[in-house]
Amino acid sequence: MLLGLALCFDHRKSRDMASMSELSSPKQHKYIWYALFGYVVGLITALAAGVLTQSPQPALLYLVPSTLGPLVFHSWARNELSELWNGGSPARSEKVRTMDV
Questions:
Q1: Which of 49, 57, 70, 79 has its CA 20 to 30 A from that of 16?
Q2: Is residue 36 assigned to a domain?
Q3: What's the domain count of the chain?
Q4: Other residues' Cβ atoms within 10 Å of the Cβ of residue 59
Q5: Band (100; pLDDT cuts 50, 70, 90)
Q6: What is the pLDDT at residue 15?
Q7: pLDDT value at position 95?
Q8: Quick check: is 95 in a domain?
Q9: Quick one: CA dihedral 4, 77, 34, 52, positive or negative?
Q10: What does the pLDDT read at residue 14?
């Protein structure tokens, strides 16, 4: 679910950038790659812990911090943590805007 959230956030940020007519690199907001990297690291760690201890390990113990950590740090460094955590304001449709006027 966190990877889906990161993908949706990337899509919304790229759509907002396109609507503001800014010329930026397409790889500017790619939170999905940070989340995916963290997921891979957490999965490898969970598998290694299971093999080394010869007992079942809760995978979420490794997956959640390793996936959430890079996302939170990267968004904090870009001053987008509150937008990522709380979600952006809902997009208003053109019909609603004309009704407000």
A1: 70
A2: yes
A3: 1
A4: 15
A5: low
A6: 78
A7: 57
A8: no
A9: negative
A10: 81
Domain range for residue 46?
2-87
Residue identified by tokens 């870009």 is 78
Residue 88's pLDDT is what?
Answer: 67
Give the whole-angstrom CA distance, residue 52 versus residue 88: 43
- Radius of gyration, CA atoms only, the chain: 18
Could you tell me what percentage of the chain is helix, strand and coil, using 3-state DSSP and rounding each to the nearest 5? 70, 0, 30
Q: What are phi and psi of 20, to 5 degrees?
A: -85, 0
List, for residues 67-92, the tens digit of each pLDDT value.
Answer: 999 999 999 998 988 888 887 666 55
CA distances for 77 relative to 22, 45, 70, 89, angstroms:
21, 26, 10, 21
Q: Which two tokens stand for residue 27?
A: 């790889």
